[in-house]
Structures are given as C-alpha cells and as structure tokens.
Amino acid sequence: MADTETAKLTIGDKVIDLPVMKPSVGPDVIDIRKLYAQGDVFTYDPGFTSTASCSSTITYIDGDKGELLYRGYPIEELADKSHFLECCYLLLYGELPNAAELEDFEARVTRHTMLHEQMQYFFRGFRRDAHPMAIMVGVVGAMSAFYHDSTDISDPWQREVASIRMIAKMPTIAAWAFKYSIGQPFVYPKNSLDYSGNFLHMCFSVPAEDYVVDPILSRAMDRIMMLHADHEQNASTSTVRLASSSGANPFASIAAGIACLWGPAHGGANQACLEMLQEIGTVDRIPEYIARAKDKDDPFRLMGFGHRVYKNFDPRAKVMKQSADEVLGLLGIENNETLKVAKELERIALEDPYFVDKKLYPNVDFYSGIILEAMGFPTSMFTPIFALSRTVGWISQWKEMIADPEQKIGRPRQRYMGAPRRDYVEIEDR
C-alpha cells in the first residue's frame, strides 16, 4: 500500500509536509530526507535513538513486547528448533533452507574454515599478552590482503564468496586468538565436526591428547551464537554499514564492526556482568548491592539488567538461563555460587517495585558470561565469541545495504556550538 499520510512541520512562517512511511511492522517513519533542502534545518538526535538510518528486512525488535524476530521468526522458536548455520542461511537469504539447500550451505562453510597458512605470522606478530579482540581486529582487516578475489563489492559473486569466507573463518580466527593468548599451539579445524563443536575443538583440544566435544556444551555454544547473530541497527551493525557505505571492502568493514563491539557498553557487557556477580560473591550480600543500585550517588550499577531497546524481558535471556542450568548441571557445578547469586538477584529485581517501574529486566548478558566461564573461557574471550556470533548479522546487513538503491554514503550532520567565523590576528597583536 502506498504511503499517503504526511506530517506537518512548522518552522517560523513556513509549513513543510513530510511523508509518513509505513513499515510492515512497528512504528511509522517520517521521511526527513528533504528537510534540509526545504527547511534549512537539521534534526538533532544524539545516539540516533529516534532515527531510522535504513530500510531492512532482516531483524525486528519490539521492545515493549520483549520480541526479537529473525526474518519474522521468533528467536525462542529458532533457539528451540533450529541451529546456528540454519539461522545463518535464514539471515543471509531471507528464508529457511530446505534439506538440499542446508546441506549445500553447511558444506560450503565447512570447506572454508581453514586460514591461509601465512596468516599465522600475523598472530605471532602480536605480544603474548595481547587481548584477543585486538588480534581479531587486526587479522580480520588483514584478510583483504589474502583474499583479493572477494573484495569487489560491485560483483554479486564476490560478495557471496566473502560472506561464506567470513562466516567460515571467524571461528578459526577467534580460536587461534585464544590459543595464542594462552601460549598453546594452534589447532586446525576439523571437517567432521559441526560449526559450534569445531569451535570448541579448536579452543580446547591439544596435540598431546584426544578431545571429545560434549554435545550439551556444543548445543549451548550453538545457542549463544544464535542469540547473538543479529540485533537490528545496533552500534556495531551501524558501524559496519557506515564503513561499507564508503565502498570499503567487506573485511575492512567487518573489522570496523569488531572494533566497535569491543566497547564495554556493547559486546563487553557480559564480561562486566560476570565481574559484578563475582564482586557480590554470595547471596547474603545481595541486599547491600540492591541498596547501592538504588542510590543515585553510588557509582555501582546492576549490570545485565535493562536494555536500550527492550522495555520488557529480553527474550534471549530466557533461553540463556535454560542453557546455564544445562551446562552447569552437566559440569557438576549447578551449586555454583555465581549462578546462585544470579538467580536470586534476578528473583529480587523482578519483584522489587524500583526495578519493575524502571523496566529493568535481565538481558542476554546476564547468564551468557556464567555459561562461558563454566565452559573454560576467560573473560577476555567473551567479546570475541560475541564477534564470531554477530559476523553473520554484519554480513547480512552489509549485503542488504550494498543492494539497496536508496543507500548513500553515511554523512551525519551536527549542531555546531563552537566559535562563529572570526578573523586571524597576528601574534604581536594577540
């Protein structure tokens, strides 16, 4: 149905009609593309919290309902019935694959997991104490120096090849960054394992003994990847789109997304949440920290609660809580003190009017750190695993943006508050 409504904006004695665009789901969008030309004004929206920067068909979030959809499918259903590579296919191509399509896609990904052998020198060039995210930013950006046949963004086939390469090689890059940081030899991918199992194999196996991937741990890792695969126009996804809008090659654009994700307010939030739970330590100390969270003069904040978008329970947190129970039960640490603190803190916060009124519900970061720590990952690996998971979302958004005829190079405007034009004064007169 054509958009016929308009919004009227009055600026002094001038009235401007702005088209109102209808989405398939969600709030209407006011088209302000001609606002500067017609009204000689900009809009002011720090953080772009009320600005739609693009049209997209990939992910939809209803924060009030606590709903997250991948191509229309609720994340809870996908986490229960699907697996990561099937979700990758869905995000990349728009529909769930049939059996033949899935088999072909899985084969293509599996056969591209190895890295160019010379890329080992990039890893070995970093200091031994380098953060794995620093290594990932550098190595992913350097992929454009090795894979010249998939950097032409105007060629649909090269875009496809780059997409498969990024999804296939990112687990190897993340695992090797981990191995390098702990001084162990690199472990090569194994084509007989599935995507998540192969990642665990590359992280935890050593040449001296056999490593058998536990299916429960593999399934938990697969869920973590699915739950983080895409999340609409968040900071890192917007960074990938902005970098790509200049025509940058896909590897450079994804490296930019990884750099943005590194921030503690974005991909590092699960590490901050786990550190908070460990700081609280025991269940009996929770009231003290609840009181501190309510005190506006106390710098302490409850991490893992609330979200910029969700004003209800984060649907991903429900799935993550179930996985936490399964993983810690398997490992025989279901009485883990950190998990006890998390569950009791969640129970109290969900009943406390202060948190309920502010709609501070647990988010996906609340339990993911507990699971990753139980698996044996240090906190420095939490964000690299997030980057590995989000790669398919970044690639899907990148491909969509390249094919969008309305997309232009990103160029936000500003509200200038500096000095107006002034004349230069010679030194002796100043």
UniProtKB/TrEMBL annotation:
SUPFAM superfamilies: Citrate synthase (SSF48256). The active site is at H307, D365. One of its GO terms (cellular component) is cytoplasm. Signal peptide: none annotated. It catalyses: oxaloacetate + acetyl-CoA + H2O = citrate + CoA + H(+). InterPro entries: Citrate_synth-like_lrg_a-sub, Citrate_synth-like_sm_a-sub, Citrate_synthase, Citrate_synthase_AS, Citrate_synthase_bac-typ, Citrate_synthase_sf, Citrate_synthase_typ-I. Keywords: Acyltransferase, Transferase, Tricarboxylic acid cycle. One of its GO terms (molecular function) is citrate synthase activity. GO terms for biological process: tricarboxylic acid cycle. Pathway: Carbohydrate metabolism; tricarboxylic acid cycle; isocitrate from oxaloacetate: step 1/2. Belongs to the citrate synthase family. PANTHER family: CITRATE SYNTHASE. This is Citrate synthase.
